[in-house]
């Protein structure tokens, strides 16, 4: 190529450095909060005695910080580094790049403030309230527009495989976020979901499963396809395997969400669909793992020497383990054992700590020295980080598997008289304490490794000189091109808009086929005439329950197993949840299921249990909530809540918003009188009264064997 035909341009390394630094900073914060949350499970005192740092409030803070702050910034750092180099052009719009960076950091900051304050929708991985949801959509679209603009002005004719995964991730996360976040605001920090009960559960896990797929998996596969060949100095093992891997993965993933809802009140046909497609997912997932590992053919000697490759090999192996375990957990007989136990926690963290964490570390160790035109400060420290992090994953995951099997076997055991051998749920939790201690130790090891990395990155930066603009040159993309006899997929790779449309169709089919019938066909959710909307006080109590993150430990879904119905009562029916916005079926039981708790204990039991759980349940690991007995509720937005729910179809009578306060006071005074009879003096507008009203309502709408 003649020098005169080459165009000169540069890559912007500053945006990459900023996203990389944000990855490191937020990663440390997210992991630190995770260690605190893990400690709270065996040491209630670690809840620190105030509403803002209890487990229920900091658990979503931890998941959001790790997923959207740590992993999210890592994705953006990798994309802003790799995409310009793959397309031989700077990012389309520098202003959009910086809008994306600062917008995303402000969103994370808003999450860090609002979640501890109790402003939450309680939906898994989508807890943030509606103003932040809108901000996420705007910033995400800015990121996508910048990517597509860069594709259009590229100098490279074909899109490399990594970019396929970046595009699919952008499209799908946008679709998932918008549809799952449809809600009607009550005020600036409170909204109600557009979906209710069974439908809300299906939409949430369509989102939740695919948020894992298209935020934690597909963008990282794109990063793997770029950074692994670079680090190993080897081409990707198989181009054709990457094609099969990509299209089958994005098509199949969208069908698999219902496997999170097996044995629940979800229609059986949806559960079966979720199971079938989950099992099929193992093929494309392992196709990606094989493609990654075989890329290292002829380079395994480097793995011994290079910490970057060590991190990447373990990351890809963890991806393979998680994507084998996921389909296995979707089998109903395995799911019956694992669901609501620590098995799910172990599964998620094999992926999170192993796949996302280690690939991020490997990428940073490779990229950081190149940004500063130097070499890594200390390979020994990087290797130490690798081994400490690996031990952290082992100490985290193995105890959780042991805890899961221990708890399941105890919960399902009957004695020779046909009674539950461990009738009190707390008996099983106490047995898990040593496992929880080991899990927290594993998290501390993993965090320690990350601290070592921060020091190594800092010293690397100090050792080198940052190169803000990196010069490059390439020929312009010519319009005329003879494509005769070209492989069909190569033709698609020349047409980014066409490719994006095809990917959108692939991801839309599965979700539409599952969700539309569940919302529109009434037979999917049989109605129960005795199920009535919540009273005003129960509604306020439910919102308080949600604000405190109680669903993080307590489910409200009794499955049709003998050991569950004997323990909790009649199994849950779809029609019982028609006024639940959002649904509260939960995904982990650190405490017992609460769906039939209504009427089981007197009001005073709930009062003393919230004030000091150990007084009612000796040995309880639940944190106390003494402030609820004195904190006053603010009922000023009650009329707005009633009107909002009326718009969503809840059959409150006309003008009910005007009389709701009168009805609330009557019910609150009745609970106050009940407590007074038990020797407890409390004001009617305290938080505890509203919470008691909600708990005493649960499961009482239908007649059960225990009624």
Automatic annotation (TrEMBL):
Its main location: membrane. Binds 1 copper ion per subunit, denoted as copper B. SUPFAM superfamilies: Cytochrome c (SSF46626), Cytochrome c oxidase subunit I-like (SSF81442). Heme b 1; low-spin binds at residues 62, 349. It catalyses: 4 Fe(II)-[cytochrome c] + O2 + 8 H(+)(in) = 4 Fe(III)-[cytochrome c] + 2 H2O + 4 H(+)(out). GO terms for cellular component: plasma membrane. Keywords: Cell membrane, Copper, Electron transport, Heme, Iron, Membrane, Metal-binding, Respiratory chain, Translocase, Transmembrane, Transmembrane helix, Transport. Residues 536-699 form the Cytochrome c domain. The keyword Cell membrane applies. It is a multi-pass membrane protein. Its EC number is 7.1.1.9. The keyword Cell membrane applies. InterPro entries: Cyt_c-like_dom, Cyt_c-like_dom_sf, Cyt_c_oxase-like_su1_dom, Cyt_c_oxase-like_su1_sf, Cyt_C_Oxase_1, Cyt_c_Oxase_su1_BS, Cyt_c_oxidase_cbb3_su1, Cyt_c_oxidase_monohaem-su/FixO. It is found in: Cell membrane. Cu cation binds at residues 209, 259-260. It is an enzyme of class 7 (translocase). Pathway: Energy metabolism; oxidative phosphorylation. Belongs to the heme-copper respiratory oxidase family. NCBIfam families: ccoN, ccoO, PRK14485.1, PRK14487.1. This is cytochrome-c oxidase. The lineage of its organism: Bacteria, Pseudomonadati, Bacteroidota, Cytophagia, Cytophagales.
């Amino acid at each position: 190529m003649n020098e005169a035909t080459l165009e000169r341009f540069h890559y912007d390394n500053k945006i990459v450095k900023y996203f990389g630094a944000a990855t490191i900073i937020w990663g440390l914060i997210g992991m630190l909060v995770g260690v605190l949350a893990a400690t709270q499970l065996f040491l209630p005192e670690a809840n620190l005695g105030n509403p803002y740092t209890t487990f229920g409030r900091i658990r979503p803070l931890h998941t959001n910080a790790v997923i959207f702050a740590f992993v999210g910034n890592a994705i953006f750092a990798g994309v802003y580094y790799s995409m310009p180099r793959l397309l031989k052009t700077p990012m389309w719009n520098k202003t959009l790049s910086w809008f994306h960076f600062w917008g995303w950091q402000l969103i994370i900051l808003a999450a860090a403030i609002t979640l501890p304050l109790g402003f939450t929708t309680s939906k898994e991985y989508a807890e943030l309230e509606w103003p932040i949801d809108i901000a996420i959509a705007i910033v995400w679209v800015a990121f996508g527009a910048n990517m597509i603009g860069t594709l259009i002005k590229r100098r490279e004719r074909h899109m490399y495989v990594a970019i396929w995964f970046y595009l699919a991730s952008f499209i799908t996360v946008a679709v998932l976020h918008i549809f799952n976040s449809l809600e009607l605001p009550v005020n600036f920090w409170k909204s109600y979901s557009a979906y209710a009960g069974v439908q809300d559960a299906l939409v949430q896990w369509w989102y939740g499963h695919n948020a894992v797929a298209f935020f934690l998996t597909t963008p990282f596969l794109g990063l793997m396809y770029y950074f692994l060949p670079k680090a190993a100095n080897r081409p990707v093992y198989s181009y054709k395997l990457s094609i099969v891997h990509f299209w089958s993965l994005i098509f199949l993933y969208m069908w698999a969400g219902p496997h999170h809802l097996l044995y629940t009140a979800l229609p059986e046909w949806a559960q079966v669909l979720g199971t079938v497609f989950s099992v099929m997912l193992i093929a494309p997932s392992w196709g990606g793992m094989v493609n990654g590992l075989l890329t290292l053919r002829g380079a395994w000697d480097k793995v011994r020497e290079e910490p970057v490759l060590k991190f990447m090999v373990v990351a890809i192996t963890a991806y393979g383990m998680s994507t084998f375990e996921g389909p296995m957990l979707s089998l109903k007989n395995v799911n019956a054992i694992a669901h609501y136990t620590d098995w799910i926690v172990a599964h998620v963290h094999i992926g999170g700590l192993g796949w996302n964490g280690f690939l991020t570390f490997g990428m940073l160790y490779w990229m950081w020295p190149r940004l500063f035109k130097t070499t890594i400060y200390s390979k020994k420290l990087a290797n130490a980080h690798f081994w400490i992090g690996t031990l952290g994953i082992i100490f985290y995951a193995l105890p959780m598997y042991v805890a899961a099997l221990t708890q399941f076997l105890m919960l399902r055991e009957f004695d020779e008289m046909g009674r539950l051998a461990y009738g009190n749920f707390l008996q099983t939790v106490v047995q898990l304490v040593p496992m929880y201690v080991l899990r927290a130790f594993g998290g501390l090891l993993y965090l320690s490794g990350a601290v070592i990395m921060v020091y190594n990155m800092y010293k690397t930066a100090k050792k080198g000189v940052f190169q803000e603009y990196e010069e490059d040159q390439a020929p312009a993309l010519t319009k005329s091109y003879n494509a005769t006899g070209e492989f069909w997929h190569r033709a698609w790779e020349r047409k980014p808009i066409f490719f994006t449309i095809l990917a959108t169709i692939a991801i839309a089919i599965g979700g539409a086929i599952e969700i539309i019938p569940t919302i529109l066909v009434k037979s999917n959710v049989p109605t129960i005439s005795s199920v009535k909307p919540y009273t005003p006080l129960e509604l306020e109590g439910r919102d308080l329950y949600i604000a405190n993150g109680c669903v993080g430990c307590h489910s409200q879904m009794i499955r049709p197993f003998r050991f569950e119905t004997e323990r909790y009562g009649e199994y849950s029916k779809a029609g019982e949840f028609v006024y639940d916005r959002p649904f509260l079926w939960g995904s982990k039981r650190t405490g017992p299921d609460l769906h039939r708790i209504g009427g089981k204990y007197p009001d005073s039991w709930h009062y003393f249990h919230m004030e000091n759980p150990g007084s009612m349940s000796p040995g309880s690991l639940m944190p106390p909530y003494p402030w609820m007995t004195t904190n006053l509720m603010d009922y000023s937005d009650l009329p707005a809540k009633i009107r909002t729910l009326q718009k969503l179809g809840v059959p409150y009578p006309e003008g009910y918003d005007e009389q709701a306060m009168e009805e609330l006071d009557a019910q609150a005074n009745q609970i106050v009188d009940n407590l007074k009879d038990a020797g407890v003096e409390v004001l009617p507008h305290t938080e505890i009264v509203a919470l008691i009203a909600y708990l005493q309502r649960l499961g009482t709408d239908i007649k059960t064997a225990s009624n």
